[in-house]
Write a structure and sequence with these properties.
Distance between the termini: 92 Å
Oligomer: single chain
Low-confidence stretches: 76-113
CATH architecture of the largest domain: Sandwich
Number of strands: 16
CATH superfamily of the largest domain: Urease metallochaperone UreE, N-terminal domain
Helix content: 25-40%
Structural class: alpha+beta
Strand content: 25-35%
Radius of gyration: 38 Å
Shape: elongated
CATH class of the largest domain: Mainly Beta
Strand order of the largest sheet: 11-12-16-15
Order of helices and strands: HHHHEHEHEEEEEEEEEEHEEEEHH
CATH topology of the largest domain: HSP40/DNAj peptide-binding domain
Length: 372
């Protein structure tokens, strides 16, 4: 089958300049790349056709031959056969990075560049519930790498400098071509850094990094929640070959409290009261995170009733509001009675009946409806 005209494939005129060719090819490649069109042979064929056309027309010598003799003047895929290694990436690398940075966004993007970013670190920090109320300044000590002070992270002996890699000419990447596909990969000679260290620093042995224990001050805000991650920028592992350092993530763990449980910015606790206090009413002391407060228990309070102390909970990390403390009343029944106490309770039970017990009265009414 006769090949379509390369200018027609890219939808450009025969006078199209390099920028127009690049834009046209990039658009077609993005639309028809196999990763974006899985199982679509027509799209894959259009992608191959556009790549072949651009491989020829983006090369001045091949384009001239194509303009004079047509496809026979350059051969299939621009005459390329097998892998070709390009030390100078030239303008095609810019196109490749632009193209695949969009196609594969979220997969790390372009790898071009001299340095590699340092790894992120994680530190688990356990704090008390009371510290959530106020926040705190915490000093932690972690093992990590940092940029070598002797060579300023270059890896070269002080007084010398790394040399530009001759193979990739400092780009850190070389290009491989098979047919009309071109793929960039890190340069083997410099390991993708673009530089070669001839004389290594004795302190870091040419790595540009030293290891040790380092003290870091971390500000924990009030209202922090269990499992929350706090990012400390630049406190992770040092970068490689001048790359920027990683980050430190401090993961918060709030210790369980003996008295309180937490729900968001509210805290809950259970407070026992005597039978007589619940029946007659009383004023009792309630512990809070900031000290004791007085709480009035109304006459006839039932076990399980929930009472609210407004503003006695925890601050919210997302707003300026503060939660409440919810107090669940637990009516405690005495387990040991004196003879006198038993006599008095028996008289009380005989005289009370069910008239003054609304919960019991309601239960008996439902029971009668059920049995009728």
């Amino acid at each position: 089958m006769a090949k379509r005209d390369y200018y027609e494939v890219l939808s450009v005129s025969r006078r199209a300049d390099e920028g127009e060719l690049k834009t046209a090819y990039r658009k077609l490649a993005l639309e028809n790349h196999p990763d974006r069109n899985p199982g679509n042979p027509e799209a894959e064929e259009r992608f191959k056709e556009a790549s072949e056309a651009y491989a020829v027309l983006s090369d001045a010598e091949k384009r001239s031959a194509y303009d004079r003799f047509g496809p026979s003047g350059v051969g299939a895929a621009g005459g390329a056969s097998g892998y070709q290694d390009f030390g100078d990436l030239g303008n095609f690398t810019d196109l490749f990075n632009d193209l695949f940075g969009d196609l594969f966004a979220g997969r790390g993007g372009s790898r071009r560049g001299r340095g590699q970013r340092g790894a992120d670190l994680r530190y688990n920090l356990e704090i008390e519930l009371k510290q959530v109320l106020t926040g705190l300044e915490s000093t932690i000590e972690i093992p990590k790498t940092r940029s070598c002070e002797a060579c300023a992270g270059s890896g070269a002996r002080p007084g010398t400098r790394p040399e530009r890699c001759a193979r990739c000419r400092g780009a850190g990447q070389v290009m491989l071509q098979q047919g009309f596909f071109r793929i960039s990969r890190p340069c083997d000679d410099c390991g993708g850094t673009g530089e070669i260290v001839r004389e290594r620093c004795r302190e870091c042995r040419g790595t540009g990094r030293t290891e040790g224990m380092f003290t870091i001050h971390v500000r924990i805000p009030a209202g922090v929640e269990d499992g929350m991650r706090l990012r400390v920028a630049g406190e992770g592992e040092a970068g490689i070959a001048g790359g920027r350092p990683g980050d430190l993530y401090v993961v918060i763990s709030v210790k369980p409290h003996d008295l309180y449980s937490r729900q968001g910015s509210d805290i809950h606790c259970e407070v026992p009261v005597a039978f007589s206090q619940a029946a007659l009413g009383a004023e009792i002391e309630i512990p809070t995170l900031e000290g004791k407060v007085r709480l009035k228990v109304p006459e006839g309070t039932q076990s399980g009733n929930l009472m609210r102390l407004r503003g006695k909970g925890l601050p919210s990390i997302r707003s300026a509001t503060r939660g409440d403390q919810l107090v669940r009343i637990f009516v405690e029944v005495p387990t040991r009675l004196t003879t006198r106490q038993r006599e008095l309770l028996e008289k009380f039970a005989a005289e009370m009946g069910t008239d003054t017990s609304p919960v019991t009265r309601n239960f008996l009414a439902k029971l009668r409806d059920l049995l009728e």
